[in-house]
Specification:
Layout: E1 2-6, E2 14-19, E3 22-27, E4 50-55, H1 61-72, E5 77-83, E6 96-103, H2 111-129, E7 134-138
Antiparallel strand pairs: 1-2, 2-3, 4-6, 4-7, 5-6
Helix pairs in contact: 1-2
Length: 139
């Protein structure tokens, strides 16, 4: 949700957005910085956050937002939507490239929370994508 556009400073206009109740600022023309996908799966070191990218093909923006809100309800789990970067625009494709799920180190030892995340992802995958879901670990 765009809250306002600030016209101060030499760097050009700044857009102030609201994402999940938090104000986020972006300079006009800035590209989002995303973590790179790991080439191979590595076990995290103790105390290190773990991230994974989930892609549900053709899932609508509103449903991705619902998924993120659902995941945010779990303690120690954060969800961030990734903007679609496809050119040219295609109405049949999702407006979101996926969701990055970040796990707090304490969550890695909680089988209950891991099971809840798996059940949530399974629900959205089955209901909206015919069981198709792509997962990849991020650094």
């Amino acid at each position: 949700l765009v809250k306002r556009i600030e016209m101060s400073g030499p760097g050009g206009p700044v857009v102030v957005l609201e994402q999940f109740g938090i104000e986020v600022t972006r300079r006009i023309g800035d590209r989002p910085r995303l973590p790179l996908i790991k080439q191979e799966h590595q076990m995290p070191r103790m105390g290190q956050e773990v991230q994974e990218k989930i892609t549900l093909p053709r899932l609508p923006l509103a449903v991705y937002r619902e998924l993120a809100a659902h995941l945010h309800q779990l303690s120690g789990v954060e969800a961030t939507l990734i903007s679609q970067d496809n050119r040219p625009f295609d109405y049949l494709e999702s407006q979101v490239a996926g969701v990055i799920i970040t796990y707090n180190p304490k969550v890695l030892t909680s089988r209950h929370t891991q099971q809840q995340v798996a059940e949530i992802l399974h629900y959205y995958s089955d209901r909206y994508c015919g069981g198709k879901m792509e997962k990849s670990s991020l650094e």
